[in-house]
């Protein structure tokens, strides 16, 4: 099936550092979702974006809906060990059918 | 509030056996989705129900797979007969599809191993 490109695929960072990741699509979307998945668990919805240019925060997490509507970005500030996991983006052009990203695996070094 | 509930969390079965996965969506949600996650293919949508009616089953791999939603609070995904290539994590997700929101909330998943 089709998947969105996420970058980077994985990253090691030091505790306290800021993290940036992005997701790109060849199609225009009008909704972007960001999820975090811990090992052995289901994806947990972090942030939903509905408008091009929109910037939305959830605690230390900030996500942006790219102005081209073909990309989205997620930033994590002051990372902590529990931020470890896989972060997925998902986009849709307005239907129930989401395309999911390949995931960014984050590892935090204490 | 309770999230999406799935059972069992783990299932190990032998090839040829019938497998039934269960899901209870979030109360008040009108849409339910079954996904399969593998390393190779990521998250794949298998079937989508809206108001208990199957709307899109184009992702169901083959006739061995079937899904039902007899009421708003329960759905099943059945594989009969199961094959080793069905081994994956199966997720149920629910959503309140309306004017704006297509946010999907996932359950903890069922890890299926077919030997």
Short overview:
Chain A is mainly β.
Folded structure, characterized:
The complex is a heterodimer of chains A (110) and B (115). Helix content of chain A is 0%, strand content 53%. Chain A has 110 residues and is mainly β. In chain A, strand 9 and strand 10 (99-100) form a beta hairpin. The radius of gyration of chain A is 13 Å and the shape is globular. The model of chain A has no long low-confidence stretch (mean pLDDT 94). Chain B has 115 residues and is mainly beta. Chain B contains no helices and 11 strands. In chain B, the strands form 2 sheets. In chain B, strands 2, 4, 5, 6, 9, 10 and 11 form a 7-stranded mixed β-sheet that branches. In chain B, strands 1-3-8-7 form a 4-stranded antiparallel β-sheet, with no helix packed on it. In chain B, a hairpin with a 3-residue loop joins strand 4 and strand 5 (42-50). The termini of chain B are far apart. The A-B interface holds A 1, 3, 31, 33, 35, 40-45, 48, 50, 88, 90, 92, 94-98, 100-103 and B 4, 6, 31, 33, 41-45, 48, 50, 55-56, 59, 91, 93, 95, 97, 100-109, 111.
């Amino acid at each position: 099936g089709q998947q969105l490109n996420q970058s980077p695929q994985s990253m090691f960072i030091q505790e306290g550092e800021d993290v940036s990741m992005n997701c790109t699509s060849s199609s225009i979307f009008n909704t972007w979702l960001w999820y975090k998945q811990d090992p052995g668990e289901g994806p947990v919805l972090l942030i939903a974006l509905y408008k091009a240019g929109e910037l939305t925060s959830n605690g230390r997490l900030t996500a942006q809906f790219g102005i081209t509507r073909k990309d989205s970005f997620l930033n994590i500030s002051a990372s902590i060990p529990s931020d470890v996991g896989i972060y997925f983006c998902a986009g849709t052009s307005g239907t129930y059918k989401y395309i999911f990203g390949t995931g960014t695996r984050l590892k935090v070094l204490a | 509030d309770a999230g999406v509930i799935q059972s069992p969390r783990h299932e190990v079965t032998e090839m040829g056996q019938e497998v039934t996965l269960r899901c209870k969506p979030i109360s008040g949600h009108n849409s339910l989705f079954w996904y399969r996650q593998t390393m190779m293919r990521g998250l794949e949508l298998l079937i989508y129900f809206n108001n208990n009616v199957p709307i899109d089953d184009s992702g169901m791999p083959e006739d061995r797979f079937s899904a039902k939603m007899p009421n708003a609070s329960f759905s099943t995904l059945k594989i009969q007969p199961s094959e080793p290539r069905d081994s994956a994590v199966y997720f149920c997700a629910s959503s309140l599809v309306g004017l704006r929101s297509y946010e999907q909330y996932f359950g903890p998943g069922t890890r299926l191993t077919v030997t």
